[in-house]
Fold these 3 entries.
Entry 1:
Amino acid sequence: MKKIFIILLIVFALGSLLVFQVYAEDYTVLAPLPGTESGGKTNLQMYVPGLITLLIGLSAVVAVLRIVWGGIIYMTSDAIFGKQRGRGMILNSVFALVLVIAAYLILTTINPNLLKFNLNLEKPEIGTPNVSAPASGGAPASGN
């Protein structure tokens, strides 16, 4: 059942990307993401980077909340297992936060255009190949 759900989720995600590819023109959203407003109109090229920024911010907030919750568990527990659970929660949250920020910084350092979403695909030019025939009309002569 879990595999079917994952497959359906992947198919839905790919299908929605295809729909967005077809309908990439400007549209008016009811509640735009922060950083995606431009006169009430937006398109997918502005929406995806805003979504990435929003998800990075939300992951930072969740990590801080989990660090606080792990600290509460650590402080209120007298058992050694409770303290280990709280310490583990804090460490995992810090590692996750560092991972998210490091991924963003590495991609930005390598090339800032990696985090931009461009739907303006250029149509490739297909021409006939430039093949030059041998002058003698046969195979090239060997050097014997």
Note: Residues 2-115 form one domain.
Entry 2:
Amino acid sequence: MSRQQSAPDLYQSTAHPCPYLPSETAANLLIDPKYPVSSALYDTLIRNGFRRNGALFYRPHCPACRQCQSARIRVKDFVMNRAFRRTWKRNQDVSMEIRTLGFREEHFALYRTYQALRHPGDSMDNPDPEKYQKFMTESGVDTFMMELRIGKRLLSVSVLDHVGNGLSAVYTFYDPAEARRSPGTFTILHQIELTRSVDYDNLYLGYWIEDCPKMSYKAQFAPVEIFDPISQTWSTPQ
């Protein structure tokens, strides 16, 4: 009888133009897609800077750049500053609901609008519902969705994973027409409160890239910690 492999094989993707820093070349370190990732292994991966994209687990492993660093908020130490309090107050008419993971036409329509206006021409700007489902609703771990609504109207959707000591925000999209509400910031504030409510320590936000405005905003949510793959440690950026 053959025994299950004790640890997954790692592969490096082919080099490609970086979608965040145009002057750089990107590559990823990938977990063997055929290897079954358990909750315990996923917790180890997330604490070592890996992320999940559908059923794919990866970490940036670029030839000459180390700017992509996994970021997490220590939610029990987080205190809203004045700007965050204003955003929270501005959205007092918004309700939150937890939903099971799954494809919903309403979600897909909002996703298409978000991608077309916020990330036109990006690899994610694709009208194919099957590709959306492969990325957004395919998961072998403990995953759920968080909806924010203004009355019955959908404001934002987040895909979130449970990990050993926190929640991981896999992806969030929102109504770009509601820019005055700062829906991206407000959704993260709700994710922080949700993480606290289940007595977790951390909210994992994905990658922080100091020189990329699309990603640098994450440093606002102090105390945020950044993972250094060289030293294998989490620390607060100076």
Note: The chain has two domains: 10-68, 71-235.
Entry 3:
Amino acid sequence: MNIFTSIRQNSVGLGLFAVLTAGLIALTHQLTEHTIEDNIVQAQLSAFNEILPADRYDNNLAEAQVLLPADPLLGSSEPVPAFIARKDGQVTAIIFETIAPGGYNGNLDLLVAIDRNGVVTGSRVISHKETPGLGDKVDLQKSQWILSFAGKSLENTPLKQWNVKKDGGTFDQFTGATITPRAVVRAVKNTLLYFNENQDALLSR
């Protein structure tokens, strides 16, 4: 009986410990959930403001998300998020979450902001798996290369110039790493092409 009693007491103790632990985890999650969500929104808005000046819009970009149909120009076979910037009720720019397939180590995720006139106001690589010291120079923390897209459009930069210099284009490549910048240049160009093809629909949202 003593053995069975001991086993029963240990089982009850472990059960109570599990219940208390689960309760503490649930309580911690509930208390921190809103803080985590707020931090994500603030980080997102900070990224938006890096590529689209805050004086270009007066709406809440975090709440202005739309899903665009899948399109090869946006690098995805699934719907793609975009954020509609407005000022005084008029669409002033679109921020696209687009994908650059064909990086050296896989796809790269980008934000590309294009104003209503079809001009890139800024772009950032927000996720990649490129080799440190080579392809990772697409990251603003590593080099300023990504800033070279600001101010570019299909009017002031003809399609044949939307290549790295090695391919006869306008944009620099990296020493020992041409594949990654080539993929990013192509993705930004394709995002501009998508905007031009769908400009009326995008600006009427």
Note: Strands lie at 65-68, 80-87, 90-103, 106-115, 120-127.
